[in-house]
Specification:
The protein is an alpha/beta fold. Helix content is 32%, strand content 20%. It has four domains: 113 residues, Tetrapyrrole methylase, N-terminal domain (Cobalt-precorrin-4 Transmethylase, domain 1, 3-Layer(aba) Sandwich); 128 residues, 2-Layer Sandwich (Methyltransferase, Cobalt-precorrin-4 Transmethylase, Domain 2); 114 residues, 3-Layer(aba) Sandwich (Rossmann fold), CATH 3.40.50; 128 residues, 3-Layer(aba) Sandwich (Rossmann fold), CATH 3.40.50. Strand 18, helix 16 and strand 19 form a beta-alpha-beta unit.
Amino acid sequence: MKSSGICYLVGAGPGDLGLVTLRAKECIECADVLIYDALSSQEILQWAKPGCEKIAVGKRAKDHTMPQDQINALIVAKCQAGKAVVRLKGGDPMIFGRGGEEAAELAAAGVPFEIVPGISSTIAGPAYAGIPVTHRDHCTQLTIFTGHEDPTKGYRSVDYAQLAKAPGTKVFVMGVSRLREITSALIENGADPSTPIALTRWATTGAQKTLVGTLTSIPDLADLHQFGAPAVAVIGSVVNERPKLNWFEKRPLFGKRIVVTRTRDQAGELSKSLRNLGADVIELPTIRIEHPDDHLGFAEFVTHAHEYDWLVFSSPNGVERFFDAFFATYDDSRSLGNPRIAAIGNGTAKKIREYRFAVDLIPKHFVAEGLIDAFKKESVENLTILWVKAADSRETLYDGLTALGAIVDECIAYRTVPETSDPTGAAARLAEQGADLITFTSGSTVDHFFALGLPWPDGCAAGSIGPVTSETLRQHGRPPAFEASPHDIPGLTAAILKHFRKKPEKKADRT
């Protein structure tokens, strides 16, 4: 007898990663199998554990990778094989997401399941466009309907006569391709042709666009602006609140598409800060971090770290690799002894402090040359220094410290290699949609980006975190538009804001 697994019917929310529920994230992290539709936030897939089987079943507008009956059968089969299955659907699985049908199939097969609601775009989309779907001054009723009915039914179940007469706000999804038909049906059944309507595309993401008109004008406006799916429509006088309440589209980086090339594990900090400022972020990691070739040599250096006078860390990656190895060997932080600790920048120092160690020396300029200048004020002659570094680091720090009379050992904690996986389709999106800015946080991210062979988007600038990265960009014939100061993630974010403030704003593609 086959052991039974379980299925979690999970709502992935409308697009903003911050709107995914904690329960949804827990389920995704524990899934053995992840069966997902076309999602607004492909980054969600990165929460899956190593070895999780990811199966895309498409389902966007007319593009269905797999018919619904086959999806149902797939979910049941994976559960009956004893797997923990997450069926991931955009928005809420029970609001026009066919979650009820899939739950019925699971129930009929005797498979246990759990429904994890998500925030629906029918509510979140208008909210991010500055439109409250209910408002005391406008309405106390909300009607939600679909603009895309099952064509095999042979009849229309949406009663436009009742909809036209219904008071309050009306919201519909999956209806942009039938916009003219829907608005005409409402008008023909008595709706006021001048009723305000707003369409919000890619709602809650940095790619969001909103188009405002009336039931009469909106079809022509949508054609003029080539306004396609996925979009949510809200009809009613509440649309008039948008000029006052339009908060999301007024963020300083709204409408800017920015590429982050950091490693997948590190991209989050920069991506989050940019998204919070309204940017449409594409995470395209060009490198990943792997263990050093000499595992034994690294372990020996970590084991004997207490014998050194100084520990020098030049990157957060080195800090993480070093202390993870240290605490795999020792149970007590006091086993590190009493070496002084230097960090090449604030990001590295912050990572050290996460392990509850103090930092004794941070240079004014966050580069190897800056750290050497800082050490010139210390007396390091004949002192032993363990430099925790990447395999491909410049030898500037070694040469400079040796010249000061220090005895330096190089502890290679990791190496950077090209990132070969692209589970979110970021490269294809960059090639298709272009970008306003591509950010680089190290020379290796630059080298490996250009190794991808992607065409540089028209009108796109390059942003650099520091002088070494800038020089590498110049070597590739792409001088940076700006260089962060200080040379860390907050400094890079500030430089990005300054860069776009200087550029003239493009006309908004909305009415």
